[in-house]
Predict the structure.
Amino acid sequence: MFAAILIDRGDTGPRVALTNVDEATLPEGDVTVEVAYSTLNYKDALAITGKSPVVRAFPMVPGIDLAGVVTESRHPDWSVGDDVILNGWGVGESHWGGLAQRARLNGDWLVPRPAEFTARQAMAIGTAGYTASLCVEALWHHGVRPDHGEILVTGATGGVGSVAIALLSKAGFRVAAATGKTTETDYLRQLGAGTVVERGELAERGKPLQKERWAGVIDTVGSHTLANACAQTRYGGAVAACGLAQGMDFPATVAPFILRGVTLFGVDSVLAPKRRRLDAWARLARDLAPAVLDGIAQEIPLGEAISAADRLIDGAVRGRIVVDVHR
Ligand code: NDP
């Protein structure tokens, strides 16, 4: 038996509990992992609270991320004792996930844990941090460089935003952090933000083209914020869009794209191919000092993941939540 958070169908919504699960009920897979740490991402909070139908099979163990050690393998890439990370691939949505002490997975989904990080630190990064890295990679490959100007990061105190600021700052960029939590200005400056922008400045409908301010943007909130960010991006700049914390809508015009040559990159972490994952983790290993993670992450025991999900949905959490699945 092993401990897990289990989501089942209830009469009025999902029924979620910390429970003991029989190892024989683990799903199909060619690699079994003893999970050390997991995390709580926005998507996990949606699954646990039932605020959005992200769970596609019941019962489900949530948790789109895990870090642990291989205990059984029939996959050519993995041996017993290997330190591995999993991010996405529908785990925690359609295949049992990381908020448990044990997981059985497809070995193709795993990446090696970089030696620079402990399992706990890898989960302080989690899908949020790995997505931030995918976004930085998108801007970098577009040709955005530190001498081109400031980069805007929205949803700045969130998991993606926090890691994005740290990565950009380490790579030499000047960063403007847009936040609704202006009381967290010191936190954002410590991560490397030079300017703090009040979230409200970007949250309402704006003009199709506005003063050119940003060489690049990493947007985690969507809706009017993304539209305004595109309208404020400099000629030839790029915007990496990965989130929808404000909304899934995109009430914009094509003006920034056809008159300023702005490029909008969509960033998906779930099905990103292995090469991109390895590049994103290599950037994290190179540019994210483990000490920075201590300031970003807070740790909770497995059972607390249920109540923490509500706080995350309310936007009340700063940075990242790491889950010790053995506590
Ligand atoms: P968090 O909940 O940690 O952070 C989201 C942040 O967005 C909040 O901290 C808050 O920051 C800001 N925010 C919240 N509500 C609003 C609002 N109504 N209007 C504007 N800003 C708001 O989430 P993550 O950082 O983990 O994820 C961010 C987004 O990215 C989510 O939508 C998530 O689903 C998405 N995502 C997408 C991935 C992909 O593969 N494309 C992978 C990972 C995440 P502040 O108070 O500083 O403004």
